[in-house]
Design the sequence.
């Protein structure tokens, strides 16, 4: 993809994001009402048809209820009539966003397998795999720890939970996660006895692929690539196959990027409509304004100060020019709220725009999309201390250390678990003895902050690729 095409897509992406925010903010409420009226109309028509069939079969009670059901169906149809165009518009925009997101997810596993095999095979000696892997994991653990420290400092400085009313009941989304513990959660990441396709070491790799178990696919692919480096010439046809597959998937990624503006418009517009438009979003943000400001301030410090310093002094790159090359991936991350779905765009930006070697990018980025959760770990630390402040629980130094250790380890340990953010938060709350009901307070704006922390996660992944690439180059010069 040439430079002019990238600039065209970038301009379209920015325009689509602005248009989506304006459309969703101004017309989100009427779209949400149209969806509700459509659902009410469908329900009333189903009930009317049920009673009509029962009455035709001789049911006297159904015959008596039929006129009232008919009036309700007619009233629902009248209420929906003027909103029908908005319902159609919402469905089309939602469909566009879901189609784009599905296309991205469709490419994730083939891209991970092909690029990871080629990246690891290019290392040559299997001993290099251990060295590269160690550097990658150390980078991710160090930046995650720095993110948690930043979050703890900011939440104790701002004290956003003071004066906020606590929740009385555990939210439905948290139900079933109350017993989550750090050891059990971390161990279940490696081996899941209940599901053949779950865990980092699944019993069935095809079940893992079908179930979207990215961590399990990465572990299998790393083992396969390591084995290929020891086979010699007989591995040639297999490596050639993966090389061709890698190039073909990258070409598919280029094609999908042309749909990026339309997909982003659909995702953001539909999300704003689902929550009721700009007024509803603003109402929730203002209700928890101090908490949101604390999270966003901590994320900005980590993203604009800590990570750029690492990039500058360890990665040897200019943070401004490197960040400019990552804008497309960062906007995609904010729109999709998924590191994995953003992975094709992230790899495109890192390799094409910022000239990181394919070897480093192919190894570091798939791993980072799975285990690197800088923004998530920071968010958990802020959220837990916020809940403690809401309920008037004193967080002494010992408890803050527990939060630091648990949030750092849980963020990595919860890789591949559905709703990992909620699971890790439950783990940290259990470790500190805080009430799980506190999570209920945060769920109303969690979807918005989730996009922000995902963007930070992707930014951290991309910087990790540059850092590891620089360290690998330095090692080769010594040799």
Sequence:
């Amino acid at each position: 993809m040439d430079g002019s095409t990238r600039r065209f897509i970038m301009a379209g992406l920015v325009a689509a994001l602005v248009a989506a925010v304006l459309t969703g903010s101004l017309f989100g409420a009427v779209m949400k009402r149209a969806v509700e009226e459509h659902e009410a109309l469908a329900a009333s028509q189903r009930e009317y048809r049920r009673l009509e069939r029962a009455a035709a079969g001789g049911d006297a009670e159904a015959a008596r209820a039929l006129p009232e059901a008919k009036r309700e169906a007619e009233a629902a149809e009248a209420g929906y009539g003027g909103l029908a165009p908005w319902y159609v518009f919402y469905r089309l925009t939602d469909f566009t966003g879901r189609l784009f997101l599905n296309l991205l997810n469709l490419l994730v596993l083939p891209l991970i397998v092909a690029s990871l095999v080629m990246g690891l095979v290019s290392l040559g000696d299997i001993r290099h795999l251990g060295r590269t892997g160690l550097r990658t994991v150390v980078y991710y653990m160090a930046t995650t720890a720095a993110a948690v420290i930043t979050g703890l400092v900011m939440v104790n400085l701002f004290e956003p939970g003071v004066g906020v009313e606590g929740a009385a009941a555990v939210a439905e989304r948290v139900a079933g996660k109350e017993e989550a513990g750090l050891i059990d959660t971390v161990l279940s990441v490696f081996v899941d006895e209940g599901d053949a396709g779950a865990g980092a070491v699944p019993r069935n790799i095809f079940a893992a692929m079908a179930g979207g178990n990215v961590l399990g696919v990465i572990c299998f692919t790393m083992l396969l690539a390591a084995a290929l480096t020891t086979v010699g010439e007989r591995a040639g046809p297999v490596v050639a196959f993966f090389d061709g597959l890698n190039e073909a998937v990258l070409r598919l990624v280029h094609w999908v990027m042309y749909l990026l503006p339309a997909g982003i418009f659909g995702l953001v517009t539909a999300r704003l409509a689902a929550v009721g438009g700009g007024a509803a979003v603003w109402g929730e943000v203002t209700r928890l304004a101090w908490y949101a400001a604390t999270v966003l301030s901590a994320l900005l410090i980590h993203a604009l100060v800590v990570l750029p310093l690492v990039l500058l002094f360890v990665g040897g790159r200019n943070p401004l020019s490197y960040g400019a090359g990552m804008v497309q991936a960062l906007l995609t991350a904010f729109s999709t709220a998924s590191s994995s779905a953003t992975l094709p765009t992230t790899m495109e930006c890192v390799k094409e725009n910022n000239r990181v070697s394919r070897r480093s990018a192919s190894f570091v980025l798939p791993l980072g999309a799975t285990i690197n959760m800088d923004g998530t770990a920071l968010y958990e630390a802020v959220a837990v201390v916020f809940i403690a402040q809401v309920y008037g629980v004193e967080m002494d130094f010992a408890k803050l250390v527990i939060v630091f250790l648990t949030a750092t380890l849980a963020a990595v340990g919860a890789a591949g678990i559905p709703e990992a953010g909620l699971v890790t938060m439950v783990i940290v709350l259990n470790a500190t003895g805080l009430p799980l009901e506190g999570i209920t307070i945060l769920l109303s704006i969690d979807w918005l902050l989730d996009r922000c922390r995902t963007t930070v996660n992707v930014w951290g992944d991309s910087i990790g690729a540059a850092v590891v690439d620089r360290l690998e180059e330095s090692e080769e010069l010594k040799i």
Remarks:
- The CA atoms of residues 75 and 100 lie 37 Å apart.
- Confidence is low (pLDDT under 50) at residues 167-178.
- DSSP finds 19 helices and no strands in the chain.
